Here is the input.
Amino acid sequence: MQMSKDLQEAKKRMLDGGYTCVVQKDNQVYTSMERGVKPLLNWLDERTDLCGFVAADKVIGNGAAMLYVLLGVKEIYTPVISKAAKATLDAHGISLDFDVCVDEIVNRAGTGPCPMEDAVKGIDNPKEALRAIRKRMNELNSYNNI
Here is the structure.
């Protein structure tokens, strides 16, 4: 796939700036250093209009892929993507450029699947996936506050 100029710039900005995620369209750019799906959830919560934007993201599991569908991005670059995430983006017509496709994204401890990828397993509706992701985020936040 030939990357658009916007996606080339977003990829460079992510890699050079140490961001976890960059979305851009023309001169409009949003960046984040937050990990996981947090920046995507924030943009959804803030009702940030990202329709037609491109995204560069460090790692994309199926949870993130579902959120990108809801955000309306048209093109994505990632160094690492899961097979389920690739299938989701393909099914929704989102152009994709990646370095490595893995069976699944693992959690930060390396002991099992990413909690967000696990939360959306078996779900193919992005709105249902959003509910499952929010539920898992609440569970994780409750667990971490004990």
User: Anything to note?
Assistant: The chain has one domain: 5-144.
